[in-house]
Every structure is written in structure tokens, then in C-alpha cells.
Inverse folding.
């Protein structure tokens, strides 16, 4: 008997496979198609000939651990103990899965805000716990009244995603005030803050949970080098959590992967000495602005994008088809792949919205935009 009977092939796999079959431009799955920074590839090439191919310590490569601690301090003015509060993971998704598996027990409830990343719910179900899905407002701001109603003495965890995938929304100071008020009523709730797009924000820098004192002792932070450094295939991220939570997370991690790819850790450790993460927002803002300019004469209504490398667009004036059917037609008839937003909701809420990934080179964006504007 299946432990996840309702889980099928992910929409990302479906759309990417269709894009390949129909030779469509793939703006669906969230991965860049431009080259990695030459400084990083040069470091990797050199390290390949050095003695960095054996197991690292379970929690991570010590020089990288220290560099991450420095990065957290420089970015958020937060001092962490890398030996006790930090874990390098095989991608952010593994960090999410491991944290949930370590801390959520049978009968617990986990609040998930929809639209949501599809990897949040499955580990909750595998814990024999209950995912409680709460829909964001239509402008993708949190409805804190609904969130509070969804909480109870059974609530073990609430998952927030900031900047938000798929919508590009970032949380405000008022959102954190509301979260603080909620947590004061439910002092046992743990927050899992998925901030994998933390350095990809535009007009306003996102407010990290790292900066909130009231969260320090009850929050698990999830970050991704794959997203930040355009190396999604390396599958490397990290988790920051208070010691009492990290002890439990490490117990699961050591039996899940034990330790993460050694050469990637060594390479990123060196790369952190030369890269400026604060330039990432500008880099992707230019891509966002260019993509929006390319589509300004299309029939799509582009929604605000405050962070991430995703652009949500409405096709409501183009078609009455459901968003999954529309995305399939977009691939087959027009040669562009996107992701239907309804698949991020537990109830498949369909508002005639789709998501494009603009983490592509200019030629790809231009080629895709030409096809989109002909619709």
C-alpha cells in the first residue's frame, strides 16, 4: 500500500518532459540556462585534482561552515555557532524534508500557506501528521485571521516561504508582527522559514526571519546555494536552527545522506571569498525588467514580482480553459512551457494564472517572448 497514494508525477516533471517532446522553450522548471560564474568553475576544476573527494564531517565541511556563519552575520547581523546551529544539506528540499521528519510526530498538524511548494506536504504525510493548508489572499498576502483559525494545540509547525514561490511576494513588517502575535498564543509552534530566494529580491529587500529575535529560538531557516549561485544541479543548501532543534535534525540527516558532496562544499567555501551575494538582486531584477518589457505588448497581465526569478501572468482575457489545459496548449501550439498555478493549491484553485521562469539568457527570453506575444 502506498504511503502517498494521491501523489503523482510532479507538474514540473510533466511540463519539462512535454517541453522536450515538443521542442518548446522551457520557462516552466526553475533552473537557469546561463553559464556558471567562471570563478566558481575554475575553483571546481582546480579542486578536482586535490584531496577533497572523501567524506566530510556529517554536519558539513568545516571551512564552509565557518563561511556560512560569516555570511549569516554579514547579511543579517545574526551570530550563529556553526558547530551547534548549522547543517549543510543535499539541497534545500532535503533540509526541509529532514527538519519535518525530525520534529513532526504522528497526530501533529503543520500549517502550509497556499499556493505552496509541493515538497512541503509529503514529509508531513510520511510522519503520519496532518497538513493544514491555508489559502493566501488573492494578492498573495497572508490572511492572518485564517491562519490563526487553522492553529490549535495540535499545531507543531507553520511553514513560511519568503520570498515566495510561485508568486514572487515578500512578507512585510506587519506580517512578522502578526506572526509574533500568533506565536505568543501558541508557544509550542515551530516556524520553518524557507528563504531559498533570500538574495533574489528587487525594489525592497526581503525581511528575513534571521533578523527577528522572537524567532531565534523556535525557527528553522532553509537556504540554498543552488538558487543563489545558479547551480541548481549541485543540490546543496543549508539549515540554521537553535541547538535543541538542530540536534534532532542532525539525527535524521546522518541516516538520510550522512554527509553532502565534498567537492561542492569545498568549491563553494572558496567561492564565498570572492562572490558578492548582494549583487544577485540587481542581476535578476534586470532579467525581470527585460522579460516584462518584452511582454508589454502581449495579451497577458503580468502580476507584481518582488523577488525570486518567477513571473506570474494572467491569461484570463485570452482563454477560459483551466490552467493545466492552457499550459499544455501553450507547449503544443505555441512552443513555450510554463507552470499552472492551480497545482500549488490543495484544492487546485484555478484563477487563470501561470508562472514563467525568467532565469534564462536573453536569447531564450527574447525567443519565448516572441512566441508569447503572438498568442
Amino acid at each position: 500500500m502506498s504511503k502517498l497514494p494521491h501523489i503523482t508525477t510532479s507538474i514540473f516533471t510533466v511540463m519539462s518532459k512535454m517541453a522536450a517532446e515538443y521542442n518548446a522553450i522551457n520557462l516552466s522548471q526553475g533552473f537557469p540556462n546561463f553559464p556558471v560564474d567562471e570563478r566558481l568553475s575554475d575553483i571546481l576544476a582546480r579542486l578536482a585534482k586535490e584531496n577533497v573527494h572523501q567524506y566530510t564531517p556529517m554536519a558539513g565541511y568545516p571551512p564552509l561552515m565557518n563561511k556560512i556563519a560569516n555570511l549569516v552575520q554579514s547579511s543579517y547581523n545574526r551570530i550563529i555557532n556553526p558547530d551547534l546551529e548549522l547543517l549543510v544539506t543535499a539541497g534545500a528540499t532535503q533540509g526541509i524534508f529532514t527538519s519535518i521528519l525530525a520534529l513532526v510526530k504522528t497526530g501533529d498538524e503543520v500549517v502550509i500557506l497556499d499556493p505552496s511548494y509541493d515538497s512541503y506536504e509529503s514529509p508531513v504525510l510520511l510522519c503520519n501528521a496532518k497538513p493544514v493548508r491555508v489559502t493566501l489572499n488573492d494578492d498573495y498576502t497572508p490572511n492572518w485571521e485564517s491562519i490563526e483559525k487553522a492553529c490549535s494545540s495540535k499545531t507543531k509547525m507553520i511553514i513560511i516561504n519568503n520570498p515566495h514561490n510561485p508568486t514572487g511576494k515578500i512578507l512585510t513588517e506587519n506580517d512578522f508582527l502578526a506572526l509574533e502575535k500568533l506565536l505568543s498564543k501558541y508557544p509550542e509552534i515551530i516556524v520553518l522559514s524557507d528563504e531559498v530566494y533570500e538574495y533574489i529580491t528587487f525594489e525592497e529587500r526581503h525581511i528575513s526571519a534571521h533578523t527577528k529575535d522572537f524567532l531565534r529560538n523556535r525557527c528553522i531557516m532553509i537556504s540554498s546555494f543552488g538558487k543563489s549561485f545558479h547551480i541548481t544541479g549541485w543540490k546543496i543548501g543549508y539549515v540554521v536552527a537553535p541547538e535543541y532543534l538542530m540536534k534532532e535534525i542532525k539525527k535524521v540527516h546522518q541516516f538520510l545522506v550522512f554527509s553532502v558532496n565534498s567537492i561542492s562544499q569545498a568549491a563553494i567555501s572558496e567561492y564565498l571569498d570572492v562572490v558578492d551575494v548582494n549583487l544577485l538582486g540587481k542581476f535578476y531584477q534586470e532579467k525581470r525588467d527585460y522579460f516584462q518589457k518584452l511582454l508589454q505588448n502581449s495579451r497577458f497581465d503580468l502580476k507584481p514580482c518582488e523577488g525570486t526569478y518567477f513571473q506570474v501572468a494572467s491569461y484570463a482575457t485570452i482563454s477560459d480553459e483551466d490552467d493545466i489545459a492552457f499550459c499544455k496548449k501553450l507547449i503544443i501550439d505555441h512552443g513555450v512551457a510554463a507552470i499552472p498555478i492551480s497545482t500549488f493549491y490543495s484544492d487546485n484553485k484555478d484563477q487563470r494564472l501561470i508562472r514563467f521562469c525568467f532565469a534564462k539568457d536573453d536569447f531564450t527570453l527574447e525567443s519565448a517572448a516572441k512566441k508569447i506575444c503572438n498568442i
User: Anything to note?
Assistant: The CA atoms of residues 118 and 344 lie 7 Å apart. Residues 11-30+278-373 form a domain with the Aspartate Aminotransferase, domain 1 fold (CATH 3.90.1150.10). The chain has two domains: 11-30+278-373, 52-271.
